[in-house]
Structure formats: structure tokens, C-alpha cells
Amino acid sequence: MGADVSECQASGRNRLTGRSLISMLTMTNPSSSFRTQWRQRCVLIVSLCAAAQLFGAAQTASTFVDTFESRLEMLALTQTLNAEILASPSASQSLENWCRDHKMAGNPTIVARMIAGVDKVPTAEQLQRLQVTSVSDVKYRRVELRCGAYLFSVADNWYVPSRLTAEMNTLLETSEIPFGKAVQSLRPYRRTFAVTLLWSPLPAGWEQQPRATQRSRDGARPLVLPQDLFEHRAVLYTSEHQPFSEVDERYQGQLFAFVGGR
Description:
The chain is α+β, with helices and mostly antiparallel strands. It has helices spanning 2-13, 18-27, 32-60, 68-87, 91-101, 124-130, 166-174, 179-182, and strands spanning 110-114, 139-147, 150-159, 189-197, 228-237, 243-252. It folds into two domains: 2-60; 68-209 and 216-256, Chorismate lyase. The chain is built from eight helices and six strands; from the N terminus they run αααααβαββααβββ.
């Protein structure tokens, strides 16, 4: 049977499917009982080949392991991305750069996918920050910012449509363009007024805790990343210093999906 599996794997590399293998064998053996035996045997071989391929894929799929060094790396990555977004006038542009630099998608473009059925009325404090007097002056939307197959952030966005152009409003209502790109002709800038770290890779007081100088990677369990890493709340202003949007952004663990076990 080991030889049969090897032959099956070789035939798989030559793009010979299980169905074509069975057909070929049954065509060359006229006996009905013989054909039945060969059909059953080939089905078993093809199943073993498929299992072998899945097992090989599982072996090559990298997993970030839970070691002190891994957690230090995750801390560095979190703080690096956090700082990049804080220093940028556009969070979506920072995420696009991140996607491109870490080769997370063939087309590293951020898309904003609307989440329907959610509504958040702006609070009195938000109206004050946006310098409007009525909730009717503000429009709300929730979006997922994605790059390729990965979810990078979930954002709540309250904005003042009257301070945008008609084209900008149409783009926001009918396309998947991120907010920052839609309004870029306003030459906006951000003022972040709240930053919350929702996950810390290292526990409090880690620098005072004893740790082994050597730890077997074979015995380390996978490091499970949380759904939310950190949160930013910011107000966006035009180049004329007029507020026109407030955002609440929660950045996701899938931002680090490029990291493999090392």
C-alpha cells in the first residue's frame, strides 16, 4: 500500500485525479468483479493521498508560538503600528502602507465595507467636538477596513455631510472607498483625544518576573491573538481647522496575520 500511495502522490503531481485513475484502471480490466476491487482500492488510495496532502499543509502552516521572545515581538509590532497611525493624517493610508510593506495582499488596497443595521446617535460631547447643534447635522456609519482577506479595523464614524462636497457624500454612500481617501481633497488632519491599549502581550510587572533562559519551542503552545488590539478616538479637521468627522477605531489582531512561527 505504501508503494500505491507513493504512485498516487506522483500521479497527483502530474495532475492525474482520482476519478481519471479509477476510469483508467477499470477500462483496462474487463472483469466486473476485478473492476469493483480496483475501484474500491483506488478510492482508498485517493483518500490516503488527500489526507497526506492535508497533513503536509498542516505541517507547513506556520503558527506564532507563545514564548517570551514572541510576546516581545508582538509588543514591538503593536507599538510600531500604533505610533505610525498616531503620526499620520490618515489612518486608512497607514493601514494600506502596512498591508503593502508586509505583503499581506496581492493588491494592497484598503476597502471600507459598510455594516448595515447599526446606528449610534452622537452624544452632546460629540456634537460639541464637531461644532454642530443638532443630531440631524450628523450622519453615522460603521465600516470594516479590510486589505485582501484580512480585517484590519472596525470603525464608527460620525461626520457632517454639509462640510463635504456632493461627490464625497456620494462616494461614502455608494462605494467602498475609505473615509480618509474620500475626503483627501480637504487636506484633513487628525487630533487623537483617546488611545486605549486593549491587549498587552506582556503582563504587568513582566520585567521583574523570572523566566527561563532557554525554552523549547516544541513545547510552546500557539500564541492566540485577541480580536481587538488597541483603540483610537479622534476628530478630523479640514485644512481650515473646521471639524467634520469623529472616529472610534478598533484595530484588529489580523493585522499581524503575516507573522509566522520563528
